[in-house]
Amino acid sequence: REREREQGDRQRDQSSLYLGCDQGQNDTEPIILEGKCLVVCDSTPSSEPAGNALGMSVRSGSGRVAFSASRQTNHEPTDMSNRTMIIYFDNILVNVGTHFDQESSVFLAPRRGVYSFNFHVVKAYNRQTIQVSLMVNGWPMISAFAGDQDVTREAATNAGLVIMEKGDKAYLRLERGNLMGGWKYSTFSGFLVFPL
């Protein structure tokens, strides 16, 4: 009888791990158990054998990656003795996962995946055309221009999706012209859309 009672207690303990995954549970609301995993109920489980079991997907809690930064000080890339012409963003708005390095203004991809980037770089009181490029490992992926000579403020703006490998670096480079002003008008943002 003692042995039967112990087996019954073990079965109840194991089955309690799966409680909360009923129809009343919000599909996006996680159930957090003690340990190093985040367990999320999935009302529409996939047929993938690894990663989903009993309608539950298990994933690392540190999988979120996003950053957004702005320019707060009025400096040119050349003012920083920067021969690479990387545009610096000295005010971090969001840095989930801490993969954007404020000092170098370079994003380091933590895993292979599809990443979304967008930028908005302002030139002010400047008759020169500016060209800004999103660089990945030294190669321009997308570019934008601002060149109207009759406008006192104009922005080079663009956005795109990029496949990156773990360890790839993304940053903005001033290809042409110079930046006058910053004052939180210029921003650079990115996030992991999904891993591959």
UniProtKB/TrEMBL annotation:
Signal peptide start and end residues: none
InterPro entries per record: C1q_dom (IPR001073), Cerebellin_Synaptic_Org (IPR050822), Tumour_necrosis_fac-like_dom (IPR008983)
Start-end of Basic and acidic residues biased regions: 1-13
GO term, biological process aspect, one: maintenance of synapse structure
SUPFAM superfamilies the record matches: TNF-like (SSF49842)
Any Pfam family: C1q
UniProt keyword annotation of Glycoprotein present: yes
Domain of life: Eukaryota
Assigned GO CC terms: glutamatergic synapse; synaptic cleft
Subcellular location as annotated: Secreted
Entry keywords, A to Z: Disulfide bond, Glycoprotein, Secreted, Signal
Chief location category: secreted
Stretches the record annotates as Disordered: 1-22
Location of the C1q domain: 60-196
Name of the protein in question: Cerebellin 12
